[in-house]
Amino acid sequence: MSISIAVNGKRHRLAIAADTPLLYVLRNDLQLNGPKFGCGEAQCGACTVMVGDAATRSCVFPVGAVGAAHVTTIEGLGHGERLHALQKAFLAEQAAQCGYCSSGMIMAAKALLDRNPNPDEAVIRREMAGQKCRCGAHNRIVRAIQRAAQELRG
């Protein structure tokens, strides 16, 4: 089956089954290695990407369900000299230890800040609770999201 999908501003046409997990398409077919395979059961959040405006666990999301929505991965958020405020804040706050969860954390935080540009600490902790970090960098992650929110508000 041929699927057309827009990822990070580029349209791709792939011969792939519609029920293939989006994560596999991103990593294996498009060589976008920011989203990570963590649990494969939508429990850890390492695979989180944006599908339209929604933070989405790509390990269980079928590529055929993307439809006309645009997919954004960490690579499409910012890179090199043009980092997104969240990426800069994660660096400044040293919010990544091993870094495995970071792309999913940042994408989930983007969805949060898009919905709520001024979340307090309790909201951040509640909204990010489904994103797992085994290193225990949660306090730094919260500070990074607060920093990015402040920067984005101007």
Automatic annotation (TrEMBL):
Pfam families noted in UniProt? Fer2, Fer2_2
Q: Which GO molecular function terms does the record list?
A: 2 iron, 2 sulfur cluster binding; metal ion binding; oxidoreductase activity
The alphabetized UniProt keywords are: 2Fe-2S, Iron, Iron-sulfur, Metal-binding, Oxidoreductase
TM regions (residue ranges): none
Does the record's keyword annotation contain Oxidoreductase? Answer: yes
Q: Which PANTHER family match?
A: BLR6046 PROTEIN, OXIDOREDUCTASE WITH IRON-SULFUR SUBUNIT
- The protein here is known as (2Fe-2S)-binding protein
Q: Which organism is it from?
A: Trinickia violacea
